[in-house]
Every structure is written in structure tokens, then in C-alpha cells.
Write a structure and sequence with these properties.
There is one protein chain. Helix 2 packs parallel to helix 4 and helix 5 crosses helix 6. It contains 8 helices and 7 strands. About 20% of the residues are buried. The protein is of the alpha+beta class. The longest helix is centred in the first third of the chain and has 12 residues. The protein has 2 domains: about 150 residues, Endonuclease III, domain 1; about 35 residues, no CATH class.
Length: about 210
């Protein structure tokens, strides 16, 4: 996952203790001291956390002696910081224009985080599940791991295997202008408009369209 090195807005002081496990209306079983305790049991996170607290990036020879997971975490050096004794990664979300503080998720908890978010989003696809996880958490190679976990989800597999009956699509045959006129309503979603809806009439032969405010 690529994230910009330069944050476009100042980083607000957001406490990781206020972060829920699931983005929308989910459980708050993991917060504050529980994340601190979970990270304390992960040797890779503890190793990187010590370097971050000392503000010292180890040299290449020293990094090569560390575990692969620690090396991958250190690749995020410019974004890592310790907040309320919890290792986090700060990134700029280009969609919401917000700075997010992602908790560095211990390896032993990544599957639990995925399952909670995946179930909370009604077994959403890979991209949507990843997007929700990234709102709160980060761990190295998370995209590949989430894709693998999604493939092993029984509920998702059953959904993929289900064949929905669909009526065959047939083009509408027209031979002269105004033989068939298609009608549709378009809403711009602006409450301040005098005419919130637009009636669009299209001649299917010439593709000529009329827009009538309603």
C-alpha cells in the first residue's frame, strides 16, 4: 500500500483509546490499555516501538539483523509515532482529507480485526473491507493477508457460488424518430434548487434529449 510521505494538513492529537474496533456502530472491546497490552505481546512491534521512542532509525546493518516483520514496519519510519504508549502510523486520507492514526496491529490480532470488520460490513468485498480496516489499523502486507482471508470466508464462498436468475437483456428496436421516447428523472441532490428534479426525455432513435425542470 502506498501512502504519501507529506501530510497535507496538520496532525490532530487523536487518542488511539477512542478508536473502535469496527468503524460503524461496532464493538469497543479493543481500546486504550487493551491495545497497549496486545502490542506488548508482539516482539516485532516492541522492537520498532523502542526505536521510535528513541527517535533513532537503525542503520542498514542493524536492520538486517531484525525480523522481516520488524524491517517492514521500519519501512514506514516517517509515519510511525507513539501515542498514549501505542505505536501508530499516521497517513493522509485523500478521500476524506483527514489525517488518520492507524494502530499498528499485532500479528496475533490481525485475523480478529479482519473478521470483526468483515462481519460488520455484511461480508463486503476485498476493497471495501480493506478500506474500513485502514481507517483504524495497519500491519505490513495487510492487503495480501486480507485477500487470503476473504478467499477462505465460507459465507463469501457460498455467495459467489449462488447463481442469481436474470432476465435476458434485449435491445429496443426503433426505426424512426419519436417511435419510442425514454423517460427518466434526474436529481442533482441540491436542496436549495427551485426545481430539485429534472425530467429527461430521450428519443431512442436520434438520441436527442430534452431536460425539463420539475
Amino acid at each position: 500500500m502506498y501512502c504519501p510521505d507529506v501530510l497535507l494538513t496538520p496532525c490532530p492529537q487523536v487518542s488511539p483509546a477512542t478508536i473502535e474496533l469496527t468503524p460503524e456502530g461496532g464493538r469497543e472491546e479493543w481500546a486504550g490499555s487493551e491495545w497497549e497490552e496486545a502490542q506488548a505481546g508482539d516482539p516485532n512491534i516492541q522492537t520498532v516501538k523502542r526505536y521510535v521512542e528513541m527517535h533513532v532509525l537503525p542503520g542498514r546493518p542493524e536492520r538486517q539483523t531484525l525480523s522481516l516483520q520488524s524491517q517492514r514496519l521500519l519501512q514506514q519510519w516517517k509515519r510511525l509515532h507513539v501515542q498514549n504508549n501505542i505505536l501508530c502510523r499516521k497517513v493522509f486520507d485523500p478521500q476524506t482529507h483527514e489525517v488518520r492514526h492507524q494502530i499498528a496491529c499485532p500479528s496475533a490480532k490481525s485475523k480478529e480485526v479482519w473478521r470483526s470488520v468483515h462481519e460488520a460490513t455484511a461480508h463486503a468485498g476485498v476493497e471495501r473491507t480493506l478500506s474500513r480496516i485502514r481507517q483504524r489499523f495497519y500491519w505490513p502486507c495487510m492487503e495480501g493477508e486480507v485477500r487470503q482471508l476473504q478467499q477462505g470466508c465460507v459465507a463469501c464462498s457460498l455467495q459467489r457460488e449462488r447463481v442469481e436468475p436474470r432476465a435476458p437483456l434485449k435491445p429496443i428496436a426503433v426505426s424512426y424518430p419519436l417511435e419510442v421516447v425514454g423517460l427518466d428523472f434526474l436529481s442533482l441532490g441540491r436542496n436549495t434548487d427551485t426545481h430539485p428534479n429534472i425530467l429527461v426525455a430521450t428519443d431512442l432513435f436520434t438520441r436527442y434529449a430534452w431536460a425539463v425542470p420539475t
